[in-house]
Design a protein that fits this description.
This protein is of the alpha+beta class. It has 13 helices and 20 strands. The strands form 5 sheets. A 6-stranded mixed beta sheet has the order 3-2-1-4-6-5, sandwiched between helices. Strands 11-14-17-18-19 form a 5-stranded antiparallel beta sheet, with no helix packed on it. It starts with 6 loop residues before the first helix and ends in an 8-residue tail after the last strand.
């Protein structure tokens, strides 16, 4: 055993974690450690396994990207068995997408699996990222040209998909962690992919940071302090942005463009970022933000759109709106007396059907298949698309607006927030889901 005593570092981890947990409104049912078997997560798991009051779970994510993944899983299982820690291995598939690196795709798959596990077990997620990881994150953000939010790096505490994520090692250096792990005689695995400098983070870790640390030994700690200062400034900015957004956002979550234009351009960008952040969306780049601002003065008929990630920002009738591309609409059979949704139109609905009517006669189809329609309160048919425009349906959604048919007779058009009857039929009714808890 080394003469080095790791008790001080272990106490520091315990104090940090206790402070993070005490700040939570509701105590978690368990602590879920994302356990890769590396030195960082091994020390974290060893430390928190001594937590006196909250059960600890270890979760290993099997990506299948390395030929050694099965051996690593066995190592993690043995590590947990010795310490009587519940162990779970979850296999995930890494989806390769255009303009998304393998590194980012694997990270996304890993996070999603861990967050799903935490939701199922009402736990908080603990990650082993440390001070040097934080420096890498900040430098990568600098390389991307990120703003204050990106340059703040990884927060010690954040909520993702309703799950609290904690990083108790964020103020500890990699050197301190490895020294403590050796003194405790812990064993850990080495992922050979960490030696591949084709990955940006590995390039920084292996080729750049050693030189920085040799020249400036406190460089990582100084970057950590800068991160904390940026977090404070971002928090203050978020408070002001939230107050201003409250006055320019509609009940439907649309951003009023006339009110937005009353602010300076830097504030317009900040308000757009805050608006998207509060929707839990990936924030656009600086260039994409400027594209959003350029569509503020456009006309509805131009159908301006800014695409970023898996969503779009569009302008319509004096507001910016977040939209998701809809698949092509097609005739769809639907069931009665249950809450239902279809892939090509947002929202849920329930079709009430009397017992003497036939469920297999019900069908949804896009209403634009009919050139003209006649709502029940109108004297004569008119253009379907003209009605949809009058009802405030944006141009990009008009091909997908559904009409419920019974035995091929169009009965009722289902808009986002209301229904338009074409022909009343005794024994049939439609209710749209209004966001309240669904009845049993």
């Amino acid at each position: 055993m080394s003469e080095y005593d790791p008790s001080g570092l272990m106490s520091q981890i315990a104090v940090t974690l206790s402070g993070q947990l005490s700040a939570l409104e509701t105590p978690p049912s368990c602590l879920v450690v994302g356990f890769s078997g590396g030195v960082d997560s091994s020390l974290l798991l060893h430390s928190v396994s001594r937590h006196p009051s909250i059960p600890v779970h270890a979760v290993y994510i099997h990506h299948g990207l390395s030929q050694h993944a099965d051996d690593w899983q066995d190592h993690c299982k043995r590590f947990c068995k010795v310490r009587n820690i519940p162990f779970t291995a979850i296999e995930v598939s890494v989806e390769i997408r255009p303009r998304v690196s393998l590194e980012a795709a694997a990270r996304e798959a890993r996070y999603n699996a861990l967050l799903d596990y935490c939701k199922q077990h009402s736990g908080v997620l603990l990650l082993g990222q440390h001070q040097d990881d934080q420096l890498e994150t900040i430098l990568l953000a600098l390389k991307r040209g990120s703003g204050p939010a990106g340059l703040a790096g990884m927060p010690e505490r954040v909520v993702k998909r309703g799950v609290t994520v904690l990083r108790p090692l964020l103020n500890l250096s990699r050197e301190a962690i490895e020294r403590a792990a050796k003194a405790l005689s812990l064993t850990w695995i080495h992922d050979e992919s960490n030696d591949d400098n084709r990955f940006d983070r590995n390039f920084l870790r292996n080729a750049i940071l050693p030189g920085l640390s040799k020249r400036w030994p406190e460089f990582s700690a100084a970057a950590g302090r800068s991160s904390q200062l940026l977090v404070e400034q971002n928090t203050l900015m978020d408070e002001v942005v939230g107050e201003r957004l409250a006055g320019i956002t509609s009940e439907q979550g649309y951003l009023n463009t006339e009110a937005l234009k009353s602010y300076s351009v830097p504030w317009q960008r900040a308000l757009c970022r805050g608006w998207l952040k509060r929707k839990g969306l990936t924030l656009p780049s600086y260039t994409q933000l400027n594209e959003m601002l350029r569509i503020l003065d456009t006309k509805d008929d131009a159908q301006p759109v800014v695409r970023t990630g898996n969503y779009e920002v569009r302008y319509y009738r004096g507001s910016l709106r977040v939209c998701y591309p809809l698949p092509q609409a097609e005739p769809t059979r639907v069931k009665a007396n249950v809450w239902t949704e279809v892939t090509w139109w947002p929202g849920r609905f329930c079709i009430s059907l009397s017992a003497h009517l036939k469920e297999d006669a019900l069908c949804l189809k896009p209403v634009v298949e009919s050139d003209k329609i006649q709502p029940e309160n109108q004297r004569a048919p008119r253009s379907t698309r003209k009605y949809l425009k009058d009802w405030g349906v944006p141009a990009w959604e008009r091909n997908n607006v559904p009409v419920l048919c019974y035995e091929h007779r169009p009965l009722v058009i289902m808009l986002r927030e209301s229904v338009i009857w074409l022909e009343r039929t005794e024994g049939i009714n439609v209710v749209l889901y209004n966001g309240n808890p669904l009845p049993p």
